[in-house]
Specification:
The chain is mostly helical. The protein has 5 helices and no strands.
């Protein structure tokens, strides 16, 4: 029986798996075309090799690649995720207002606007203050 997967290898394997899935989906939808497949293979290969080398270093970025963040890095990640969530919520609201102004189909924008509201409600219910 083999041991657990080295943390340094996890990110390159995820990149290769995502590239393989993307390539298979592209070939299934558009058919076989040499140029896009070669570009995808080269990009995925270079990214996986780059992540392998960077993941072996003793730096903050390498710790994140290996999924071994310290408290400061975990806090930064939460701040980045919060900023992304706020930006996406604002973008959904602007898209909905624009769709209303242009008299466009509203249901895709309504879903995009309702999703952050629903996830915020679930988040407050799950992680909010609880009296025990």
């Amino acid at each position: 029986m083999t041991g657990p997967m080295p943390p340094r290898l996890r990110a390159p394997l995820v990149i290769i798996g995502a590239g393989l899935a993307t390539g298979l989906a592209d070939v299934a939808v558009r058919g076989w075309a040499t140029t896009p497949v070669v570009i995808l293979v080269a990009t995925v290969g270079l990214a996986a090799i780059g992540y392998w080398f960077v993941g072996g270093r003793d730096t903050d970025r390498a710790a994140l690649i290996r999924r071994e963040p310290d408290e400061r890095q975990a806090q930064q990640r939460l701040q980045v995720q919060a900023l992304v969530g706020k930006a996406m919520t604002l973008a959904a609201a602007v898209a909905f207002a624009t769709a209303v102004a242009l008299d466009a189909t509203l249901w895709p924008f309504a879903i995009a606007l309702a999703l952050p509201v629903l996830t915020a409600a679930v988040g407050w219910a799950r992680y909010g203050d609880r009296q025990r």
